[in-house]
UniProtKB/TrEMBL annotation:
Keywords: Hydrolase
Molecular function GO terms recorded: hydrolase activity
Annotated ranges, domain Nudix hydrolase: 7-146
Species, as recorded: Streptomyces phaeofaciens
SUPFAM superfamilies per UniProt: Nudix
InterPro entries: NUDIX_hydrolase-like_dom_sf, NUDIX_hydrolase_CS, NUDIX_hydrolase_dom
Protein name (record): DNA mismatch repair protein MutT
PROSITE patterns linked: NUDIX (PS51462), NUDIX_BOX (PS00893)
Superkingdom, taxonomy of origin: Bacteria
Cofactor: Mg(2+)
Keyword Hydrolase: yes
Transmembrane feature ranges: none
Amino acid sequence: MADPVTPTIRTCAKAVVVHDGHVLLQRADWEGQDCYFLPGGGQHPGEPLDETARREVHEETGLTITVEKMLWLREYIGAHHEHADTEAGTHRIEAIFHCIPESDPTRLGGHAHDDAQTGLEWVELEKVPGLNLLPHALRQPIAALATGQPSPGYLGDVD
């Protein structure tokens, strides 16, 4: 019998960087599929989550941003999803922030890209629902930014 897996909780900050009706997304090749992710990543010990979002966006995109407010809180508990056999020890908690660029939004190019990252793209908010944006649960809430403020809150344990 296999030893039980003890999950490690990883806290992260993601950024919904909005400019001129567009959102900044990372293009990626992840598990053999072309997809998109929000910029962001893991929190360092002692680092506030809004600072995590600023640091990660700068590292991955080269942009300096202003964090406006937290939009959503998302969890991913690997044992509850499709790849439970390999991700049973995964438990992520992501704070997702609404952000605006401070630096020139046309000058992109970070110095610490994610391994799967293949590029950066400004995408019209209305087109987000048709993208392979991961997690899929973020597509509609992000698109809702085009017509007003989406409902903030807890998104739950979503893949």
